[in-house]
Write a structure and sequence with these properties.
By secondary structure, the protein is α/β, with parallel strands linked by helices. The chain contains twelve helices and ten strands. Bound molecules: 1,5-di-O-phosphono-alpha-D-ribofuranose.
Amino acid sequence: MLADTAEKIKRMEIRGAGRIARAAVKALDDHSDTLLTKDLQDYLARMEEAADTLLETRPTAVSLPNAVRSVMSVLREQYPGVEEAKSAFRERCSAFITASGQAVQRIGEIGARHIRNGDTLLTHCNSEAALACILEAKRQGKEISVFATEVRPRNQGHLTIRTLDKAGIPTSFIVDSAARYFMNEVDLVVVGADAVSVNGAVVNKIGTSQIALAAREARTRVMVAAETYKFAPRTILGEYIEIEERDPGEVLSPALSGQLPNVRVRNPAFDVTPADYVDLIVTEAGAIPPQMAYIIIRDVLGWDIGEYSGGFG
Ligand code: RI2
C-alpha cells in the first residue's frame, strides 16, 4: 500500500507538489493503521522506515519532506502505548490534509486579488495553487484569458487546459518555446512552485525560468502561488535544493537513443528562477515579495537562523 503510493509518486501518476504531500501523508496514515505490533518502539521504527521510503521518491518538491516531517514529529512525543501514538498520528495527518486543502483555497482568494478584469495570463505546467488563483478570478466574474504551455516532456499542460476549458476560460495552448513570442500580450505570469529557497528563488517545472526571463524583458509581472510548506527551511543553512533529473526515455525513445551513441539526453524536471525575476509569492499566510521568504521560514515554519547557524552569540 505504502510502497504503491511511493511508486506512483516516482512514476508521476501522483504529481504536483501539493498532491504529493497529501498522498504521502495519507499513505503514512494508512500504513500506521496496518501495523499490528503492540510494541511502541517497533511501531515507531516501522513508521520511520515508511517515512524514509516516501522521502526517497522525488527529491525536489520540498512539500514532501516538510509534510512527512510535520506529521512524523507528533511521534516524537511520549505515549503510553501504540494505540495512543496511532491515534495522535491519525489526528495530525487529518489536520495536515485539511490545512493543505484550505491553503490552496486561501491562495486562490489572495492570488485572485492580483488578477485584474481583462487580464491575459500565462501559466506553465499544472499547478493546483496557480490554477486556484485563476479559477477564483474567473468565479469573481473577471474576464480573463490564459496562455497555457504544453510542458514537455510529460505534457502536464494537457491537464491544465482541461481545467481551464471546463471553467469556460478562453485559453490558447502553446508549445513551451512560444512563450517569448506571446509574452507582449501577457499581463501576468502565474505559476506554482515545488520549492522556494530562503533567498526567494523559486524552483518550479523546467522552463519556468526561461518564461520569467522573457517576462522580465517584456515588463510582464510574475506571480508564484505556493503554500508555506513549499518553502525550504534547510536553505537557511546554505543547503541547495536538489534538482531531479528524470529518465532520458521521457524525452527520446530508447530505440532512437540507441542509434545515436554520441547523443546524451539531459532531462532536468525543474529549474531555478532567481528572486529578482519574481514579483510576488502568494502563500496562504499572505502575499510577499520573494525577498521576504525568510520570514515565512522563520515565522510560519518555525526555523530560526540563530538556532541553527550557531553564530552571532
Ligand atoms: P501544485 C509540479 O511538479 C509543477 O512543477 C507545479 O508547478 C508544481 O508541482 C506545483 O504544483 P510535477 O509534480 O502543488 O509536475 O501547485 O513535476 O499543484
